[in-house]
Amino acid sequence: MSKKSISRKKFLAGMGLGTLFSGSLLASFPNQDRKPVSNFEKSGNFNRLLIKTGVLVVGGGPAGIGAALGAARCGAETFIVENYGFFGGVGTWMLGMSINQMRPESKPRSAVHEQVIGKLEAYGPSAAKFVKHGILCNVDYYKVSLLDALEEAGCKYLVHTKVVDTIVENNRVAGVVIATKRGLATIMADVVIDCTGDADVSYFAGADTLKDPEQVSPQTLAIRVSQVQDDGITYKHRMDSERVQKAKAKYPLIPNSWTLARIANDHSFYVNHAGTKVFGHLDITDQFVFTEAECKSRRQVVEMVEAAKEFGPPELRNIEISGTGPQIGIRESRRIKGLYILTEEDAVQGSTFDDAIAWRSGAMDIGFTRLSEMKTHDVPYRALLPEHIDGLLVAGRAISATHIGASSGKSMGNCIATGHAAGVAASLSIQQKCQPRELKAGKIQEVLRKHEVDLTRGGKSQSEDAFDNI
Predict the structure, then answer these.
(1) d(C-alpha 397, C-alpha 415), whole Å
(2) Are 128 and 142 in contact (CB under 8 A)?
(3) Is the Cβ–Cβ distance between 37 and 46 less than 8 Å?
(4) Which helix (H) or strand (E) holds 349?
(5) Hey, where are the domains in the chain?
(6) How far does the chain reach from its first CA to its final CA, in angstroms?
């Protein structure tokens, strides 16, 4: 099978839409000489203000949670919106995958990290347990524990809220447009933090972004499985490459190998795997390619389980699908072009910076393509700032970095750390009545230290356990 993404034309043809959508999507529709007017424009609701807040966090994954808790801890009026019906991002989508780099070297890394951990552990041994630097959890406890953390911090929130555009005034992000069941509405804010993972807010605002469509990391649809015969001792079961090659003729969509790992204190297992790697490099910022990646992944899951039954080791012969994630997990898409771009060299050398506001630990993990060691390295404040747009900060996997630089820090604990810093910076910029780019990094560092962040970790070698993605 070709490693290249199929063309849009071939994809549409395969969906039975090739004739209808040949050329332009609108080519076969009548009256295209008239400018279409939406009901939203007709009703004049564009200025319908839903919320006005100090700090607006867009995206409720690890970075968004860190940003919201960080901003609220500094006293800012904070609102966070999430596209799905729950918070947690990939930490919940992946159905039990370890939340890595939460306590590297078994040391707490910030008061915000510990707040998240504490709320989860408060639900007892059924909710979570630590393994090395990460935490394994039952994701339904995790979803509720994040609500507990946000409410304790005084953060307001909305779920089922999709941001579809950005409001820019005088080169400053002043708010966003959201889609609701009552139509479009606006949320205005003094500072917006883009934690979408795909730099959506930044892109809509016209900020320069970086993307590597020819080498983008694969996407993965998480699987939760049951009926695995287990002696209670073995932590993982594996479909190795030899078994997979025997199964490929009958199940061509399956990845080249995959591993089952036990969900914390549960009789189920989750599967994190190479996903769309067998289909080539799929750029999910193209809606047609996103559809291809999502729908092929759904078919792939069924083939994987059936292949495991037929060709797997004896303990997998009765395996069953218990569930899948709400969408494919995305390792990489767009990133901002910031005032500094983190690189592979920064990760390998363990770069330190005078304006460090976080650090990243773990492995240089390029989505089942390359896994290698790196040093703990700093994240400069400049990597959170879009090059030309004011009123906006970015946290999580969309911070300013190269393809490999981004892969060197995408673990969830690292994303919480950059979110935490962005939240502090947003709050301080409001207090000081300045733009985030005008803020002195030393002021952010001072607050982060009060939040129990050790900013001296950059440049240090890591223990062998740090490179284990569990």
Answers:
(1) 7
(2) yes
(3) no
(4) helix 344-349
(5) 43-212+333-470, 223-324
(6) 31
Three-state SS letters, 396-411: HHHCCECHHHHHCCCC
Residue 66, classed as helix, strand or coil, is helix
Please tell me the predicted confidence (pLDDT) of residue 60: 98
**Res. 11: pLDDT tops 50:** no
**What are the backbone angles phi and psi of residue 412, rounded to the nearest 5°?**
-65, -35
Beta strands 183-194 and 392-394: pairing type? parallel
Determine if the pTM surpasses 0.70. yes
Give 43-212+333-470's CATH code, choosing from 1.10.630.10, 3.40.190.10, 3.40.50.300, 3.50.50.60: 3.50.50.60
Residue with structure tokens 């001296």?
Answer: 456
Q: What are the tens digits of pLDDT across the range 388-426?
A: 999 999 999 999 999 999 999 899 999 999 999 999 999
Taking CA atoms, 48 is separated from 33, 152, 188, 197, 304, in Å, by 30, 30, 11, 27, 47
Residue (of 134, 332, 118, 313) closest to 229 by Cα position: 313
Are the C-beta atoms of residues 67 and 423 closer than 8 Å to each other? yes
121-140 pLDDT, tens digit per residue, is: 999 989 998 888 999 999 99
Instruction: Answer for the pair 64, 56: CB distance below 8 angstroms, yes or no.
Output: no
E strands along 198-312, which residues?
Answer: 209-210, 223-226, 236-239, 258-262, 269-273
